[in-house]
Amino acid sequence: MNSPNLTDLSAFVAVSRARGFRHAASLGGVSASSLSEAIRRLERQLGVRLLNRTTRSVTPTEAGQRLLERLGPAFADIAGALDAVSRFRDGPSGTLRLNVPSIAARHILPHVVPRFLAEHPGITLEVVSSDTFIDMLAAGFDAGIRYEERIERDMIAIPIGPRRQRFVAAAAPSYLALHGEPLHPQDLLHHACIGHRFESGVKPAWEFVRGDHRFRIVPGGPLIAAAIDLEVETARAGLGLIYTFEEFLRPALDDGSLRPVLSDWWQSFSGPSLYYPSRALMPPPLRAFVDFLQRQAR
């Protein structure tokens, strides 16, 4: 039996990881039909079915999974070797795709991206902002930004942005004059609260912390939205209290259109991290971005 060529093996790995021909084709810049032909050729050559195909999904067979597990480290070594060679070029080039939450897109990346792109004119940065938790790799991203509790254990994570953040509760002076100021989180049960809804449909509870005491409420009031600007403006109009990232409320707090409430109970938490799957598989644009962030940290 002739040995399969690397192109066909690479096609198998790409389709298996992407769980589909079209997705793998879009990531690799090739046609789905060429990938399909490569898989058929590889299966004929090996004499075993490697992928189960339906109209909805493509998944490895048991034999295909065994092959994928053995090929993964081998292709990682090849990628590492090519990456080492690429360091001798003038500089990294290509596209870096990041999936980030809205707080990072609006208040963290603007302090990072312009300087990074100025240093690396050969790189195109594509940023998709989404507050829905996704399988970053399956969706075709090189890396993502998330908070610690949302990062899978097998990912590598490095800090980006502020190392501590907090949620801040606030209301317009007109609202407080009419309804009074809450002195304990439990008081919010009798107040109008402006809620947030993620793209997934989840409406998070508000959690307040003071020492060893925690208090959670499900906000209820005149608005539930998935648009932070709308939520802030509704609070500024005096229609209810809001509880969200301090960065979103800071301009309104500074100009006095919102006043802080329950400051002893604001929740503080660790800042976000850039996360990615493996140093061995890092494409040059991602390697350049990681190196840039580490230099900035130092």
What is the C-level CATH assignment of the largest domain? Alpha Beta
Overall body shape: elongated
Q: SSE order in H/E notation?
A: HHHEEHEHHEEEEHEEEEHEHEEEH
Average of the residue pLDDT scores: 89
Query: What ranges have pLDDT less than 50 throughout 5 or more consecutive residues?
Result: none
Overall CATH architecture of the largest domain: 3-Layer(aba) Sandwich
User: Count the helices. How many?
Assistant: 10
| Class from secondary-structure proportions | alpha+beta
What can be said about the biggest beta sheet? 5 strands, mixed
**Total beta strand runs:** 15
**What would you report as the Rg, rounded to the nearest angstrom?**
24 Å
Distance between the termini: 54 Å
Description:
It is a single chain. By secondary structure, the protein is an alpha+beta fold. It has three domains: about 5-85, Orthogonal Bundle (Arc Repressor Mutant, subunit A); about 95-160 and about 270-295, D-Maltodextrin-Binding Protein, domain 2 (3-Layer(aba) Sandwich), CATH 3.40.190; about 165-270, D-Maltodextrin-Binding Protein, domain 2 (3-Layer(aba) Sandwich), CATH 3.40.190. About 40% of the residues lie in helices and about 20% in strands. The protein has ten helices and 15 strands. The strands form five sheets. Strands 4-3-5-15-6 form a five-stranded mixed beta sheet. Strands 7, 12, 13 and 14 form a four-stranded antiparallel beta sheet that branches. A two-stranded antiparallel ribbon has the order 1-2. A hairpin with a 2-residue loop joins strand 9 (about 205-210) and strand 10. Helix 1 packs across helix 3 (about 30-45) and helix 1 packs across helix 4. The longest helix has 25 residues, at about 60-85. It is elongated and about 80 Å long. It starts with 5 loop residues before the first helix and ends with a helix.
